[in-house]
Amino acid sequence: MLPYADAAYNLARWLTRNDHDADDVMQEAMLRAYKFYPGLRGEARPWLLAIVRNACWTWLGKNRPAELTLVDEPEADTPGPDVLLARELDRRMLNEAIASLPVPFREALVLRELEDLSYKQIAQIAEVPIGTVMSRLARARRMLAEKLSPTTAAPRLRVHK
Amino acid sequence: MRPDDKTLSAYLDGELDASASLELEREMAQNPALRASYDRMRQLSAAVREKAEYYPSPTHHKIAPAERSRWVWLAPAFAFVLIVGFGLGVFLSQPGEEETTSNEIVASHVRATLANRLIDVASSDQHTVKPWLSSRLPFSPTVVDLSGDGFRLKGARLDYIGSQPVAALVYQRRQHMIDVFVWPSARDAQKTAYARDGFNIQHFARDGMRYWVVSDLNKNELDDFTKLIRGQSPN
């Protein structure tokens, strides 16, 4: 399981958005992981990520319940705004934009783009139907594109943090 | 109809089934705006993968805190079990107090018989034997004459059992010698009987005295003898 400590911490760090809280969550999650490890069937990495994800949600629910309030997930039919090309995107701006996404979208994006998990695996970790994963990812990308579009990026990012 | 973000996004992630993918590809070939939309999404996805922070875990989560703390727990527990086990082994392999005493009793009886040194004060008179003993010991054992029951008092000697001086009363039944070792004891004990190396040993404690009876006499007769000793001990 130790090879997945990085994946576990990365998820905790993205969901809590700071090292200290990620450390707290990890402590709890790893204890649980070791406790339940003997009962593990199947792949270890999604299993561990599910434990970390649950520990994060429990922690957030206790310490920052506002972050877990449900956001409506409207369908987006209009074309997304232009975004800067990847190579032009400022690393810090991109990271701040991801960090500013609501938790359900942030976790879907991190699990998909940084852990390269399938929709099915993400659905199991986040305990939602696959269709929800699909729409959350689409919405996460749309929100990210909006935050990073050349016309809106600067003022929006100044507001955050 | 223009495919929505969800379809584009799923296609980007390779999660769209084959027929839907084919249909989307056909549409994109005919619709440059849709194609551009998809390209922007792909660019963004690539940017996230390339530039988003990946926070590696601090080492203390990697060296398995749970496992380590389990060992931290286990180490003293293991040491404790080892020490207790060793101590228990030593304890069990050592003869108990009673076993040690009965060994000494038999040894003393055999030694005295072999050396024909059974008796320091030869007398069948309990009133001679008792003062002789009490003048040499820090206690005064009860001495009874059982000749009426077939156990003749031959006398007594001093002996040394369990690191203390004890009185050894000597009785005779036919050709069998009986030693009765007596010394003070804080607690009473029920009668127990052993056989060791062909000798019968009986042990009890009452009225502040501990009695060990040893003889090559058969067990039944020795039982009778012990009963008489017990019965006639003063209350």
Structure description:
The complex is a heterodimer of chains A (161) and B (235). Chain A is mostly helical and 161 residues long. Chain A is 65% helix and 0% strand. In chain A, helix 2 (19-36) packs across helix 3 (44-63) and helix 3 packs across helix 6 (119-126). The longest helix of chain A has 20 residues, at 44-63. Chain A is globular, with a radius of gyration of 16 Å. Chain A starts with a helix and ends with a helix. In chain B, strands 1-2-3-4-7-6-5 form a seven-stranded antiparallel beta sheet, with helices on both faces. With 235 residues, chain B is an alpha+beta fold. In chain B, a hairpin with a 2-residue loop joins strand 5 and strand 6. Chain B has three domains: 5-51, no CATH class; 59-93; 101-231, Phosphorylase Kinase, domain 1 (2-Layer Sandwich), CATH 3.30.200.100. Chain B contains eight helices and seven strands; from the N terminus they run H-H-H-H-H-H-E-H-E-E-E-E-E-E-H. The longest helix of chain B is centred in the middle third of the chain and has 29 residues, at 65-93. In chain B, helix 2 (18-30) crosses helix 3. The radius of gyration of chain B is 46 Å and the shape is rod-shaped. The A-B interface holds A 2, 5-6, 8-10, 13-14, 19, 22-23, 26-27, 30-31, 33-35, 75-77, 79-80, 82-83, 85-86, 89, 91, 94-95, 98, 109-110, 112-114, 118-119, 134-135, 137-139, 141-142, 144-145, 148 and B 2, 4-6, 8-10, 13, 15, 33, 37, 40-41, 43-58, 61-67, 70.
Order of helices and strands of chain B: HHHHHHEHEEEEEEH
* Count of separate structural domains of chain B: 3
Structure summary, number of beta strands of chain B: 7
Q: Which runs of chain B of at least 5 residues are low in confidence (pLDDT < 50)? A: none
The rounded distance between the terminal residues' Cα atoms of chain A is 35 Å
Class of secondary structure makeup of chain A: mainly alpha
Structural class of chain B: alpha+beta
Can you tell me the CATH topology of the largest domain in chain A? Arc Repressor Mutant, subunit A
CATH class of the largest domain in chain B: Alpha Beta
As a whole number of angstroms, the C-alpha radius of gyration of chain A is 16 Å
Spatial strand sequence of the major β-sheet of chain B: 1-2-3-4-7-6-5
- Helical content class of chain B: 40-55%
CATH architecture of the largest domain in chain A: Orthogonal Bundle
